[in-house]
Amino acid sequence: MAEIKRTFSASKMNKDIDERLVPPGEYRDALNVEVNTSEGSNVGTVQTILGNSVVTTHVPTGSMCVGSISDTKTDKVYWLVAGEKSTTNNVTTYKDYILEHDVQNDKTRYVVVDIYKVEIQTAALQNSSTAGFLYAPEVSGVDTHNNTGIRLDMRIHSTTGPTVIDLSQDWKVTDIQFDTDKWKILFDSPQFTNGFTTNNDQTVTFTSDRILNFDSSRLITGINILDGMLFWTDDYSEPKKINIERSIAGTGGNIRLNGAPVTGYQNFTANNNTAKIIFEGDTDTFHTRLVSSKDGVNLEVMTNRLNQKAVWLEEEHITVLRKAPHTPPYLEMSDTGTQRTDDNGNVNNTDTFVTENFSSNGVLYAVEDGPFSITFNAAVDFRVGDIILFTSNTGLSIPAFTDDLAEVRIVITDVPSGPLPFTGPFEYKVLSNAQNGTNSQNFLVKLDKAKPIFELKFPRFAYRYKYNDGEYSTFSPFSEPAFLPGVYDYAPKNGYNLGMTNQLRSLKITDYIVEDSAKGQDVIEVDILLKHEDSPNIYTVATIKPTNDHPEWPDKANHPYTRGEYELESELIHAAVPSNQLLRPWDNVPLKAKAQDITANRLVYGNYVQNYDVSNSASIDVGIESTLGDFVNNVQGAELIPSKSVKSLRTYQLGVVYRDKYGRETPVITGNAVDSVVKVTPLEAQRFNKITAKLKSPAPEWADSYKFFVKQTSNEYYSLAMDRWYNAEDDNVWISFPSAERNKINIHKTDRETDNTVLILKKQHTTDLAITEEMRYKVIDIKDEAPEFIKRNTKILGTLTNSPSNQSINQTTAGFPFEDTVSFQCNTDDFNNEFLNTENITGGVQDLGVREAMHNGFLYVRFGSGTSYSSYYKISSMTPMIGSDLRVTIDGKFNGDVAFLAPDGTTSTIVSGVFLELATKIPENKPEFDGKFFVKILGDINIKQNITAFANDSEQWAVVNAMNSYYIHYEKADGAALVAGQTHDPTPATGLINSVNLGGNATYHQYPKSLTAGFSSNYPSGSGWQGVNSGNTKQAVAIWWVAWGFGWFIDSAITANEDAENSSMQEMSTNNGNFVYTDIENGTHGVFDVVANNSQYDGNTGISGDGTGLSLSWSGIGGETNTFKNNENPEDFNVGGTVNPGQGPIVGLLETVGTQFRFRQDPDNTVYTIEAVTVLENRYNYDAVQNSGWRADAFRDGPNKRKTWKLVVQDRDGNGIGNRDGAGNSYDPTITDPNGRWTKASSSNPIGIEFVVPFAEEDDQLVTNNPAVWETEPKEDVGLDIYYEATSAIPLDLNFKTNEQFAKYGSIVKNETNPWATTGVTVVSWSDQTVTISSSETVVANDIISFEAPDGGITRLKVETGSSATQITFINETHSQKVTLPYFNCYSFQNGVESNRIRDDYNEVYIRNGVKASTVLAKHYEEERRGAGLIHSGIYNSTSGTNELNQFRQAEPITKDLNPRHGSIQKLLNRNTDLVAVTEDKCFKILADKDALYNADGSSQLIASNKVLGQATPYAGDFGTTNPESFAQDNFRSYFVDRTRGKVCRLSMDGITPISSAGMHDWFADNLKVGTGTYKTTVDKVVGSFDAKKQLYNVTIEQKNSAIRGSSYESPIDTYYTLSYSETAKGWVSFKSFYPESGLSINNDYYTFKDGEMWKHHTNETRGNFYGDQYYSDVTVMFNDQPGSIKSFNTINYEGSQAKITQHGLSSTYTNPVTGFSSTVTGDVTDANGGNVSQQDGEYYNLNAETGWYVDSFETNEQSATVHEFIEKEGKWFNNIRGVATTHINDSVDLSVTSTNLDQQEFSVQGIGVAATITSDEVTNNQYKFKVTNNTSTSYDPDTERDGNTDGDPDGIWDSSAD
After folding, report:
1. Is the pTM for the entire model greater than 0.90?
2. Which of 691, 692, 698 has the alpha carbon at shortest distance from 669?
3. pLDDT tens per residue, range 997-1015
4. Rounded Cα–Cα distance for residues 30 and 1826 (Å)
5. Cα–Cα distance between 1657 and 1661 in angstroms, integer?
């Protein structure tokens, strides 16, 4: 008999090839079998596989493993579990886990337990006004171990049950105590809300923030282990990292803290050693605790400061990104050797006076004499070893008391007992003694201070954290510069500003150990860092460890509010920090990432998300807060002590940077150029300025804090102290500077051009007054040597003076030196007698005669009168005239400086005593030119007032302009009573008008200009104004003003605007924009007294005192002739401009602050300076209302209009007019001197006002130790958009973690809304939004409270509710409050000098804009998915202890992008020292720590490179994956599934191979795609793992099925497939019936995970048993020999193990696998158990059941058959093959759907039709109906309605033969 035999030698399935062509040795299908592997020696045979055994039982059923990894170095497996909730005794807990299994020791431990939710039923509830708590039942009965899962600080935020509790206020657990048989949970809220009743079924929910955040829908495929650290990323939350050892040490136990009793935290005082004992990961009862090592060796549980409470693990403890400090260190600086303060922190005194005699019996104490006793006048803080200096010059200031001035030096040997300071007695020994004499003397005493540290530097300090695993955080914000400037001392002889040398002698760095919740208790070290302003290098000054003594590392148990103090005693540094750390403002760790691996000892992320969504602009209100120092405030004895300030003459733009909770920052977000910009004016130069900012736009939802950044684009600038000034030949000014200052201007100079160099005057010459206006001067020229013009030595040859009896100087129009003329005439004889006849002809340059000097250009002339002088004019010729005169012609013409000689420019106004002075100016080199360079600038009025005004005590003045001024004084139009008293003018109280007669004639008390007695209202004759209506005061006043005409006058005259009491003088309305002035009433007229800061005219100058106000007016606007009527525009008051243009120069002088003037009649020639000006327009003399009716155009008259200038003036001593001596006895133009020295001005007799500038001889320049200071104007970096950090991080939410960050302990607290009387109020402590302050103060709701930090930064909060106590509760809103920035960039000396540079010296160190920089982005800043991007960390080196895995320095090239067209990166794999990146459509090899160079032929060569990620080379073939969980690795081979292409791929040394093509191409193509049929099928997960023991790649495909045909079908069941690929067989061996969540191999064993538990494979002898469920095994074999022949199969046999045997017994049932029909067989033999056994088949082999092989189905292309059971005969198992009964079954729902094995070709039908349908009886299913359809049918109704409806839808029946 022919036999077809099959073996399994190929060991693989083949589902691709046609059944007829399947090669021998391959099989069609297999399940749970192995062929090419074996547990014994049976390779090559088909074997069932062993089952798996559970290894762990540690998590609740239903949990899921979301990721796993093996550590072959330690033989341990780690897996991550999304836990299912677990309920025990009404307590439901929700947990996530990380577990460890030691495969060598078979020990499992919890690594991390994250208890994030507990639902619990209360047994009772306390409703109390003083405390809130509830009871929770114990999980496992009466147990003193709290295994409820509830812990401190969990939130109670939702409830369920029959009575709902409103717990919306987010209560927190504060204590947990065991009480009898329940756990008592205490809250931080004192009571529950109304309406709650005790109910045992009440459910309360406790939650905390999740730290692991695992979810069954998020598989974690990026997971690595490195040196005991586990890294993972889930593409959902922060990339994470844990230290495995420390995590296990914090997990487990049955008590919250070792040694902690059940009495609760509040009553527990732990023993340090006991409380910190670590755990072993043995239970999941408690959430994992934080464990650290303070000494670097021993692990301990972190606790609170009292060791009562464990610190529970939080997300911030396990993120790759480690938090950095939010706040800078603060500095306590002193200019003494140590900080000398009393118990309240007040600085103690170290200088005083004493009366002492350092001699005895006429003999001075000698060196080393002593000890002697001394007691000082005031209490001082002198300490043993201090050196004390004495000088008898008691008038010295302490800064001026230099060491070389000390006459006596002593050393303190003993001090009084008790806290210093004391007056004495102190004991001392003499060090040196040069006392003058042997009598007691008064001495000035001071402490001899040690040499300063950082004397010529601006050091800044910061700090950083070091964490347990060696990671360093980024830097904290840097402190202010540790710099203490000295008193201003900038003398030209020094060449630098001694005030800008650092006086720092003692420095404490504080506040670097912030509160634990803000810092994190896994910080094991704090590095204190130093950076100098002129260097990018950063150094460690000290490393502070928990083992350091208090207060360096605070002992918080005994000092809860100390935050670290380190005293720096020298400039010594410890070590340099790598320079790239400064380029690391924050670590750009991705927000989340899909892929992760470690290559080149660096952590690499792929397909990551970075940035946040944020608005491109912010609305910021920016301002300047300015304060005045003691010197400017005229505090007695105040010195020019500088303070930090924001530089004036700069524009600052502010931006905001938002930060997340881990410190990631946005770019700078700024507003528009209006509200985010502030300009600091020159006025602020004398003040101490700070920038303020207030945000008006909302903060992003994700933000945790924010910072302000400042942009200031000005480059370097320099200050220069001048030496002297010199007049230039072109009326400009030369300024000399020490040559040491030369390069300060040269920095902007190109060749000899000054490149628009500009100097800005900052301080007045010889005084300490600041220049408060912008005075910019372009450098016209620079000379390194003195210009020839100023070298000229002036030698006065003589003076020629006019007298009443002898007019030596011609006073005719043609001969007098009027302005704009070119010559003058003088009497020839007088000239010759004075100059020519006395000519020195002895020779020598300085003895040139007049004529020779004139020919050489050295002869000059000037004019004067009294103490007033004109400038010098060069004489070009002297020509005798016909007669007795000599014409002298000058070079050019006379300027306005000669105008004072004839104020009105006519001969009638020539002043008396005019003289001319002749001088020679001959070049001469003087010592004052040595070591100087010279700068020429414009000699304008400001220079004259602030530089050249200060020459010598002779005070010669040049008059630049002059005017006559009358004095008009009446305070009512008529009547005798004055409205208000006038303090300066004692004139009897009269009005202007004496009387207005009935006849129409008016008489007056004073007369207009030159008119005197007899003037009446009939004047002027013929004007049309003769006579006035009887009693018409207004007409009478009008006639007076018309007669007066036009001109200047000191104004004490009431206007029509003001005289509301007189009905004829109408009050001015608001028509035409006019205003009402009340100068007469308030006394601000004539010469008046300014009230400081309380007058509308003081100009905020602060000036006050007698005579400091002067009211000057011009009347007659529109014409300068006695025009009776003027029809000019009555609203035009532009005197000196559009009207009365001739008055322009005078108006310009009056409106210029700093203009100097004097009264010509003043016998003392006192010069006054205008300090402030207020201009008043729209003033009217007599007609207050336009078109008043009594004369239509009276309002338009020029004589009606008046404009007034209110001047604030003072002389150089600060006194006002008439008060030069401070007693009111000097010249006042409104008062006649009782001693007859002057007569006051009047309405008819003027006085002269001369505008002057100081004049000095060129050889009489003032040399001063207090010179004017100039500043170079810096160039602008307009192209730079760099902003610098200006504040620390300000929290957006005020809570227990952030309140100290908002306002540190010790901050100065003030009430800005309702200021407190108490000063020095400080922050004592915080509790969330409530602050405790140092004194009880009153606040009301919405008061603004400010907190000032030691660096000057100020934050603010708004009060929530009013109180009067030491505690204040605030509204939790920090974002919208004004912030004062601690930012500063200079020191203001209060005199206008603003210095930012050491000694103000060239090229010295200067204060930069800041340390940390940022910028704005041109494009929109938003969250960004870098799908094809890679980003890597810094390096890890365990040997050197370097761990930079948290450092993602974005300033370095840490990113790499692949071509995005290949899709996003799904998996990263470290392979052969390189990195493999698998994207959705492509695989790449990326060189790590090397790169490739390509040859001309396309080949490549590896080269060394500093690139971490080098050339990316794609592998051949377009294969990728979207299922990174399918990845599995075995040595150099990796496997993955490309679901999109329906491929399974292997990546090996030969590239990528689609292994799905090994007989399974079609199967994978069909099952990896989305399918639609009865159900919609999608592939949800594809889990890959490698079985190292069997060398199989196992891939599990999870198909999600969803119904698409309607609700009539049952819900679909998901489909799972697991297949195994063998490299040995090069094919797919078998399907498997286990469907793991994850899998891995270690030590040649294969483990998978199910329901979160670990299972070991090939260990369960029950074959086919997986995860506790039993599955069958099968193999489908093809008998396809001679496929073209039809064969009859009679028997089948196999060689192998036991076959399956079914025992036949009573009620034994057999079910046909095809038809589904079952038949029952009844037996009649009793078996051993009393059951009946069938003997119908006549066989005995089946008396007992056996498991084994059987044939499930036998199919040919013709028929189906079955083999009932195998029977063993002669070592083989065989049986007959039987055909399958014919069946035809209809679907129970849709009758059109049938299941049949009936072959219609086996039937024949008589007639011409064909069998169309064959159906079974719908009831019995055992009778068949045949329907024959006409073969010629031409129509077909698809709706046969077999389903019983008439919807017209096809029923799915279609006979292809019908049509």
Report:
1. no
2. 698
3. 644 566 777 778 766 555 6
4. 39
5. 10
